[in-house]
Amino acid sequence: MPFLRFILFLLLRLFAASQAFTGTYGVNYGRVADNLPPPESVVTLLKANKIKNIRIYDADHGVLTAFNNSGIGIVVGIPNEYLTGISVSTDQALEWVKQNVEPFLPATPITGIAVGNEILAGDNEILSEVLIPAVINVYTALTWLQLSHRIEVSSPHSEAVFAQTYPPSAGAFKESVLPYMVPLLQFFSQINTPFYINAYPFLAYKNDPQNIDLNYALFGRNSGTYDAKTNLHYDNMFDAQIDAAYAALEKVGYGAMEVIVSETGWASKGDENEAGVNLSNARTYNGNLRKRLMKRKGTPYRPNVAVKAYVFALFNEDLKPGPSSERNFGLFKADGSISYDIGFTGLVPSSGVSIAVSFKLPIASLMALTAMLVRFL
Ligand SMILES: *[C@@H]1O[C@H](CO)[C@@H](O)[C@H](O)[C@H]1NC(C)=O
Ligand SMILES: *[C@@H]1O[C@H](CO)[C@@H](O)[C@H](O)[C@H]1NC(C)=O
């Protein structure tokens, strides 16, 4: 009997692991904007482009309702400002899951809950302290609701958690991050959660254009870099950043944990002083990234683990603060047209008259309009 239970446990684990991500390509659906298409149109857009995984940064009920029966896997997010409350009370965690996840299941395939975003090595020490208790409370709540086998609890990190990423084998966490990172990894390894990293060759290049070959950052033709310790050659920075994460994990005893890229991307427009930001570089990065992911290949250091990534982002987001690049990461513009051609089709053609308006006209007013026209004729 214990043996059977163990097998069942393994099967559930396998099931959970394969549920969380379909294929290798996903997109972050950020909504810090006042001009985006309604979520129902976003479902149409994603389906037309066969995008099967998305992440949102909250648990907006309008979005979750629109994705009912869409078959598109969604990771929802608990925003950083909720973490303190959730960390002190399992009841609050339970309440959050009951309100924001449970009612939408199973028709809206919520596959994961990201607890906070880029907390460790950020500027808020208190958030670092509450992260682990918050993660544990959310997991406990899912267990009580018998949902922990199909909803993955995770927490994405920024590159700031690393002291070093070059060469990849030198990848290591910052000393200051270790007291939080190690127990977090310990818990995540117990519940089979991968390591999620927001990895941006875009930012690395922008911060150091003198020393980085743009083609290395863009998956273009270049001589690449050589890692003497592992004797591995890297022809693009994206793979190198992932392997630096594997190296850092290995150094603290979690080398077997899978690394998934929770964000990566390239802005198509920026300010004068933002190196490497333009339309053609964005198209090159995102086009090459898509091809790279479609090959379902691993990295030089983990050749058998196909890389999975969520692109940042689905749309340009006009209300994002910061430099212009922040508002121009979208594969699509706010009107639903493509930002540049990497093989996706938009809701509306890139140029010409937008037909998006007609989606918004309620049937009733269309009928009234028709009736009026009929009278006139
Ligand atoms: C989702 O669709 C199903 C019908 O397939 C319906 O029963 C259910 O109420 C819907 N859920 C939401 C949250 O709209
Ligand atoms: C984009 O920037 C690259 C350098 O980062 C430059 O070589 C290229 O000509 C630029 N393309 C356009 C269309 O401005």
TrEMBL record:
Signal sequence residues: 1-20
Enzyme Commission designation: 3.2.1.39
The reaction(s) this protein catalyses: Hydrolysis of (1->3)-beta-D-glucosidic linkages in (1->3)-beta-D-glucans
Entry keyword set: Glycosidase, Hydrolase, Signal
Superkingdom field: Eukaryota
GO molecular function: glucan endo-1,3-beta-D-glucosidase activity
UniProt keyword annotation of Signal present: yes
One annotated GO biological process: carbohydrate metabolic process
Similarity section: Belongs to the glycosyl hydrolase 17 family.
Listed name of the protein: glucan endo-1,3-beta-D-glucosidase
